[in-house]
Amino acid sequence: MNDSASAAPVLSVKGLKAYYRTTYFGVNREVKAVDGVDFEVQRNEIYGLAGESSSGKTTLIKTIAAALKPPLEIVAGRVDFSFAPNILRMKSDDLDSLRWRHLSYIVQGSMSVFNPVRRIRQAFVDFAFRHINKPRAEFDKLVDAHLARVKLEPSVLNAYPHELSGGMRQRVTIALATICRPDFIIADEPTTALDVIVQKNVLDMIREIQREIGSSVLLVTHDLGVHAHLADRLGIMYAGRIVEEAPTEDLFRNPLHPYTAHLVSSLPRIGDAAPRKGLEGSPPSLAAPPEGCRFHPRCPLAMARCRTEVPPLITVKPGHRAACFAITR
Amino acid sequence: MLELDHVSKDYVRGGLLSRQRIQAVDDVSFRLESGQPEIFAIIGESGSGKSTLASMILNLVQPSMGHLRFEGTDLAGIRSKAERLKFMAQVQPIFQNPFEAFNPLKQLDHYLFMTARRFTAAKDDAAAMRCADEALVKVGLSLAEVRGRFPHELSGGQLQRIAVARALIPSPKLIIADEPVSMVDASLRMSIVNLFKTLRDDLCISIIYITHDLATAYYISDRIIIMRRGKVVEEGDAKTVLDNPQHAYSKQLKDAVLIPHISSPVHATKGKISHV
C-alpha cells in the first residue's frame, strides 16, 4: 500500500505529545502517555499498532479521535485527517457530525457497547440514523443489506444483546461501525475477547469489508498474530513512543529495533520447540520513564549514548523506520 | 498421582418449567503418574468445560458422576479440616489474572506469610519469612523486593511470579494453572512459561496447564487433551497431536492459530534457558 505515498494520507500525526496532568495539594504529577509520536496512514490501508499494556496505545487512540477529557492534555503536535484538518481544534458540534459518518470505532468488549435493554435495531437507529439522510423505511433496508455483508440474518435486529453469541455480537459491532461507509475506522482490540476459531473469521470479515468500502483502519492490539494476519503496515509502540515501523512482512522477517526483534523471536510456534527467552526487567512506569531511550534498561545493545539522548525515528530503508542508535549510527 | 475416572459434571439452569441440563464436563478420564513430573495441557475454547474440570481437580466443585482420586484418596471423601488442608498443601492453583487474584488493599507479602503459617511447619514470623523468601528465590525474586509492596506497584509478570511463589510455599506435588499467561505482557510472557519448565525439571512438580493458546502449549507441554463442549476429542503426546491433529475440531483449532510467516526464527536463542 506504500506506493501511494505521494497521495495525501488519510491520517497524519505529527510530533504528538499527550500527557495526563494532575495537581493534588500542590504536587504536580505528569504521566507522559504519548510522547512524540509521528505516523501517517494511507487511504485503503490497515495500519497496525502493537504495544504492551501501558505503552500508550489507548491514549493515542483517544487523542486521534479528539476524545479528550481532563486530566489528559495535548502538550504538542497536531492530528490531521483528510476530511478534518487539525481535528484537535474542532468544535464539539462539528466533531459530532463527523464521528460515525467519517470516523468510526470498533470497540473491544462487544457486550458493553450495546445498551442491554434496547434491541439491536434500536442501536442502529441510535448510532447511524441521523448520519444517513434517508427516510426510516429506506434506512431499515440499508441496515438489512449491510447485515448480510457480515453474514447475519436480519432477525438479529430484533434480538437483545445478551441473546447473541460473542462472535455474532462482534460482527454486529463491525456492521455498526461500517454502515456509514466511514473514511477511517479505529479498531481497538477487536477480537481479544473471542475464541480462536471465531477470531479468525471476524478478522477476515474486517478485511473483507475494509476492502469493499475502501476505508483506512487503525488496528490496535497487543497480539502480534492478529497483526500478522491483518495489518499492511505495523508500528511498534514502547512506553509512549513508536520505536519501529515497517510493512508487516518486512517487520517480521527483518526486525531492526532490539525490542521488536525480541518480540518476534519469542513468539512460540507450532512445530518449533526451540527454547525462547523472556526479556529481563519490566516495562517502565510512564510517570517516571527512564532518561534517553526508554528501552535502554532492558536493552542488550545499550550504549552510553542511549542513557542520555532520545533516538529519533529514522528511515533506515524505504518504508522502514526505527528509533535506535545501535542501528542508525 | 491424580486419577480422573469417567468424570462428568452437569449444571441445571432455568426454573421449574424451563429446566435445562448443561453438560459442562462429559466423561473425562486421565491419569497423572507420580514420580514422573510432566506438564499436562488442557486445551479448549470458552465453554469447553476446562475451567470446570480445574475446579473439580481442586476439589472446589463436586462431580455429578465419576470419581477423582489424588494419591489414592477419593476427593469426595475429604470431610475434615485436617484432610482438606493436607490435600490443599499438595495441589495448588494459579489463576488467570494476577491483578484480580490479589486484593489491591493488601500487601503482597501478607499472602506469602498466610500460606506459610497455614501449610508449613513455620511457627513464628521469622520462620514464615524464611519460607516466603525461599519460595521467591525459586521464581527469581527475593523477599526484599516484595516486602511491603502493593499489587499496583508491580507489573503483571512480577505479580504472576509472586502467585507462583505463593503456590510453591506448601511444596505441592501438582499445580493447576488456569490461563496463567493470557494477561501477562508479551515481553514477559515467555519468562513465565519458561518458569513452568523449571518447576517441572528442577522441582519435579507436575503442572496442569489450562489454555486456549496452542502455540505455548506446544512449547511447554508433554501431553495434551483437546476438549470441546465437555468432551475430550483428542489426546496424546503434545508434539505429535499438534504437529498432526487427527480430529476435525483439532485441525480447525490449529488452522485458526495466527502465526506470522517467517522463514526461520531470526534471533532464536539456543542453549540453556535463562529463567530471569
Report the oligomer. heterodimer
Poorly predicted parts of chain B: 263-276
What is the C-alpha radius of gyration of chain A, as a whole number of Å?
21 Å
> Count the strands of chain A?
11
Q: Please report the distance between the alpha carbons of the first and last residues of chain B.
A: 30 Å
Share in β-strands of chain A: 15-25%
Total number of distinct structural domains of chain A: 1
The strands making up the biggest β-sheet of chain B line up spatially as 6-7-8-3-9-10
If you consult CATH, what is the topology of the domain at 38-48 and 80-253 in chain B?
Answer: Rossmann fold
Name of the top-level CATH class of chain A:
Alpha Beta
Strands across the major sheet of chain A, in which order? 5-6-7-3-8-9-11-10
Q: Can you count the helices of chain A?
A: 11
What is the SS-derived class of chain A? alpha/beta
| Most extensive contact | A-B, 47 and 49 residues
Q: What is the distance, rounded to the nearest whole angstrom, between the alpha carbons of the first and last residues of chain A? A: 29 Å
CATH superfamily of the domain at 38-48 and 80-253 in chain B: P-loop containing nucleotide triphosphate hydrolases
CATH architecture of the domain at 38-48 and 80-253 in chain B: 3-Layer(aba) Sandwich
Q: What is the gyration radius of chain B calculated from CA atoms?
A: 20 Å
